[in-house]
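Problem: given the chain below (183 residues), write out its structure.
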Amino acid sequence: MQIKPLATTKQGFGTRDWATIAILSSLGATLSVTANYAGDILKAMPFLPFGSKQLIAGIHVLWITLAVSLTGKAGAGTVTGILKGLVEMTLFSSHGATVIIISTLQGIIVDLVYRLLKDNRFSIYIAGGLSSMSNVAVIQFLLLFSFPWSVFAVMYASAFISGVFFSGLIGVRVKEIVSRMNL
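Solution.
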């Protein structure tokens, strides 16, 4: 089933697009700060494997995939990611300024996946999974953590599954509800 974007034009951002991006960026940033601290609680539990914080990584990307799928505009993911990162940093994210890089990369990946696969359920699932995994890549390569490959494999897999679930399944459902409302 092809999911139609709410916007009717594909060129530039209109007022409605900017409002959608601003609202979703702010909501995403606010919930991402909370999710980061919830993830810190997860990683403190001794019976969970290292990297279990990635089990909720998809929450960070949900807002970006929603912005792209609701506006139907190229670049909406990148702009949403940048704004989300800036707001999240001002809300004292545990990642500090690195969160801007993480969110921007997540937005770029969502835009690329949507450009390659078009706007459908499959693209939302893949965009959510790959974008969530980019968080681990930033941790691995930018912060230069030297954990064993098995630890990163668990982190990548957890982040991908989380992205498919939170950003994909929940994102598709939210988009269907919003589309039916004809806002």
